[in-house]
Design goal:
This protein is an all-alpha fold. It is built from 24 helices and two strands. It has a two-stranded parallel ribbon.
Length: about 575
């Protein structure tokens, strides 16, 4: 109570000198102190608080009404005054009954006025402040218990007045008698509150005439609910696992496999999709698609090639050797199928769809027209060539360089088959592009080196040391599933599945002699000046390596390549 009286005195002094910044800070400190210690003073606000609140509200109102004085205030003091206008108004609305009672009868709130009026007597001693604190607490408790009977509140109020008068006249000699009297009043007030059933009520309930019955909060048993949630989660996971097993056991049909292909096509490039898992899913589709016709099979292969290319994310990374070989084998399988006598043709889709994507819900297995853009083959061959060059650059002069160089025969076979396919369908730009890539690989090689290389490469490919797997060949994950099903005896029809390999790639010794013919194709069909300049330089280098300097000089002079070499973007 001493702290409360001191805070009230500071607030009233700040109001008196028009220091509204200090008034705002001290008022906030006063309200926080009361809310924190409300239980220790009986659960009721003291009368001195309501008296100070009304004084604050009236002072703010009068200060705002005086426009001339308000303009003289500093900006911070003016903002604090406006702030206290809202704070005092809300506080008066929250304690509307008590404020109305005070305005109706201010004298009834003078019982603890010693604490609230201490601003006019700043030199009063600590004994008077302690007496006023005792008076305010006893008066507040007697005021709250007056809802039970009006006679008891009036007697308590008159008793407190008489005690206050006797204490001021008798001096310090009668302090012990006054303390005994206040203790007896406090005990009787608390007994009356307990008897009326309002001792446990707080806040608004204390001001209501109707007795509010407080109910104890029943704590729910959360352990049982947690166990039920865990059981439901376990059942859900078991059901999902069982459903997944059923889906795995079900064999694919053309419709289900086509729907699965469309789903995977829609997932391509999305955030959170694991690229290796995506490749494995398409590898599984390529394995099962071999039973449902060439049309559906080629669509799956194109998606499979694109998925393997998408595994390279960064510019300085290169495709792994195994992935590169499987990608090259899939491209060769597609080219072999399209170049055969089956009459299969790639037709560009009419609508803008994902690579290899289609719009119809059903698929015609007997149709010879496959809705895939044939220019994708050129893109796949170019990417395969770039990945091979990057892998050689990353190996440098290491031991693995010579081993990686063995795959050059595979790359040359892919470029050759792709160029022949585009020549057959009449896409000249793709012919020139693939001829340029072919020139890059074989032009700087002499005839002696090429003869030795072709001999060793053909021996390795014929012996089976270097194998290219067919796209319909089962992957390692499919083999594990088949072995597991065979061990459990679930599927007797599948048995053991062997790998499907492509025929060995063999290149001729005269392959390097095709450089002039390849250069002529670029000169004839290419519409890109960079490709023409590049083909000219490769042709000249090839002639110079084989000692034909005069022919190389003539080509340079006739092409005028020296005039625009700075704009050719050649490294």
């Amino acid at each position: 109570m001493e702290t409360l009286a001191e805070k009230i005195r500071i607030v009233r002094n700040a109001i008196k000198i028009n220091d509204w910044v200090k008034t705002q800070n001290e008022w906030e400190a006063l309200t926080k102190h009361l809310e924190k210690n409300l239980k220790s003073i009986g659960g009721n606000y003291p009368n001195s608080f309501f008296k100070t609140l009304v004084h604050l509200f009236d002072s703010v109102k009068s200060s705002l009404a005086n426009k001339a004085a308000f303009k003289k205030l500093s900006p911070s003091n003016g903002r604090a005054l406006n702030r206290m206008k809202q704070v005092s108004r809300r506080a008066c609305e929250a304690h509307a009954d008590a404020v109305a009672a005070y305005r109706a009868n201010p004298e009834a709130y003078e019982s603890d006025g010693a604490a609230s009026d201490s601003d006019s007597e700043s030199d009063s001693d600590s004994e008077d402040e302690s007496d006023s604190d005792s008076d305010s607490s006893s008066s507040s408790r007697s005021g709250s218990s007056s809802s039970g009977s009006s006679s008891s509140s009036s007697s308590s109020s008159s008793g407190s007045d008489s005690d206050s008068a006797s204490s001021s006249s008798s001096g310090s000699g009668s302090e012990s008698d006054d303390d005994d009297q206040w203790d007896s009043d406090s005990s009787s007030s608390s007994e009356e509150s307990e008897a009326s059933g309002l001792g446990e009520l707080k806040g608004r309930a204390k001001w209501l005439k109707k007795v509010v019955v407080t109910k104890e909060k029943v704590k729910k048993d959360k352990s049982a609910r947690a166990e039920k949630r865990q059981e439901a989660k376990a059942e859900k996971e078991a059901a999902a696992a069982e459903e997944q097993e059923k889906k795995k056991e079900e064999s694919y049909t053309p419709e289900t496999l086509f729907a699965k292909l469309q789903t995977l096509t829609a997932q391509r490039g999305k955030r959170g999709v694991n690229r290796q898992t995506y490749v494995s899913s398409l590898s599984e589709l390529a394995f099962f698609a071999k039973d449902f016709g060439i049309n559906l099979q080629v669509r799956v292969w194109f998606q499979y090639i694109q998925a393997m290319i998408d595994t390279v994310v960064k510019v300085d990374e290169c495709m792994s050797d195994d992935m590169w070989k499987r990608c090259a084998g899939t491209i060769l399988a597609v080219l072999d199928l399209l170049s055969g006598d089956g009459g299969w043709k790639l037709v560009p889709p009419t609508d803008e769809l994902p690579i290899g994507g289609v719009k119809e819900e059903n698929i015609d297995e007997d149709s010879k027209f496959i809705p895939v853009n044939p220019i994708l083959i050129q893109s796949f061959c170019s990417t395969l060539n770039n990945e091979f060059n990057k892998s050689l650059l990353s190996l440098g002069g290491s031991v693995g360089y010579s081993s990686r160089l063995r795959d050059l025969s595979t790359l040359l076979s892919v470029l050759e088959e792709g160029r022949l396919y585009f020549e057959s369908i009449g896409i000249d730009s793709a012919v020139a592009e693939l001829a340029t890539l072919h020139l890059e690989q074989i032009s700087p090689v002499s005839s002696d080196v090429w003869e030795s290389f072709t001999k060793n490469s053909n021996e390795l490919n014929s012996s089976g040391d270097v194998q290219l797997f067919h796209p319909s060949s089962p992957s390692q994950s499919i083999k594990e599933k088949i072995e597991l099903s065979n061990a459990q005896g679930e599927d007797e029809k599948k048995g053991e599945i062997e790998d499907m390999t492509l025929p060995p790639v063999l290149i001729g010794e005269a392959h390097v002699k095709n450089v002039p013919a390849l250069a002529d194709l670029v000169y004839k069909y290419s519409k890109v000046e960079r490709n023409k300049t590049h083909a000219t330089l490769c042709h000249v280098i090839h002639l110079a390596i084989h000692g034909n300097y005069n022919a190389g000089k003539d080509i340079i002079l006739m092409s005028h390549v020296q005039d625009n070499i700075l704009n050719a973007d050649i490294r």
